[in-house]
Amino acid sequence: MSKEIAIVTGGASGIGLAISKELMNKDIQVVAADINEDALNEAKKANELFDGKRVDVTNESDVKEFVDYVVQKYGKIDYSFQVAGASKSGLIIDQPLADWNFTINLVLNGVFLFIKYVGKQMKKQNGGKLVNISSLNGDVPSYYAGAYSSAKAAVNMLTKNAALELADYHVNVNAILPGLVDTRLTKAITDNEELDRRFKERIPAKRPATPEEIAKPAVFLASEGASYITGTTLVVDGGWEITGYPDVRM
Amino acid sequence: MSDKVAIVTNATSDIGWAISKQLMAKKVRVIGTGDDEAALGDASQHYELFDGQVVDPIAEDAVENFVKQATDKYGEIDYSFQIAVPYQAGLIIDEQLTDWNFMIDLALNGVFLFIKNVGRQMKKQGSGQIVNIASMDAHVQSYCSEDYAAIKSAINIFTKSAALELAAANVQVNSILPGIVDSYPAIDEHSLDQAETLSVKRPARPEEIAGPAIFLTSEAASYINGTTLVVDGGWEITGYPDVRM
After folding, report:
1. Closest CA to A230 of A134, A151, A128, A144
2. Which chain positions lie within coiled-coil regions (chain A) (predicted)?
3. How confident is the model over B183-192, as pLDDT tens digits?
4. Active site residue A117
């Protein structure tokens, strides 16, 4: 049986790297699309199942070339995890249009481009699994995150629309909505004592997730055990979403 | 051998039995409840890891005693799966209050009583995982199943309330929302018609509901709490007609 092939965008760091590692532990060949060449080289050195290319996920010809490369070299794509993301935060009334565009472009358009080209290949194969790493912010707004929350909400709907369009070709499309995760991008929160306290007060688990705690549910959604799951979102937030009310216990 | 212990209510129903079998395959001891004495006895006889017991899920004393005895016998309750089965079709304006009450009692109050008593024990243990099998009907209403949809919605919010209350005790509570499942509640011609509207064009096998339910109790789901996982073959996303030409 030939080796299974997975694409992971942002696969060389943070949640993306954790997903890459989970997959390689299952002997799956990972091909990462990442903007960070140093991180790609480091991950390649660490595991021979890791292949990767520098890709700007917002650039259509980059994405098309990357997907072509994977299909030419490995013959197929079994899984694709869309993880790459970042944002320029700011209050809506102060936010420059350029910052808004940066976030929408990276978070939303990057996912669209991968689903478009990988989906085309999976349609041809008549099978495949797509998992998008969205965010709890797709359901819950937050200060300074107008662009990010809007883009993630759109990713959730894009997930469902892609599931609808690709169901006839046995392609499952789902999204994970992580809460606070311990990564380089959230260090600004967890390193700030006051902010860290405010977040933990809200999170029943009283801690951020490890990247592995996001990676494992994402890989589950791509597994045989999830064969009947498509077009849905799975919140992985340590119970954060359910704490809209203050704690009124006396 | 695993020394884990699970409670599965309605354990000889389609989904209940699929969950029980997958747990036993992982060497988890299953204490299965239900009202079908013969089926429970049969399963206990054939499976060493299965301990079937008739329990009236809406009798508080019965549920309390059951959980106490299970704890005395096996030492702890690691997992509890609540599967409420009843389904009756009817329109709101025609439904008898007694029928409505029957459904609320069996499908909602039963889940409350199990979580109350199991939750108490898990709080004492400082750990545990609870999964409720609700229904996609909690999100999408349909003709003739208004009580079912209302109850399943209530189970969803109850799941979240229980998660909130028990999080400090390191207990996770989540729910699965299945779409149409083979012979659950019952495959008839009408429900097969409904399968035509599914994205994947077939009902789920009970095992395809059991797998995700057990995943939610696994180590891999350690950060998942107070949420619902829809397992419906893309049914929920088909609100619009297919406009492809």
Report:
1. A128
2. none
3. 644 555 556 5
4. no
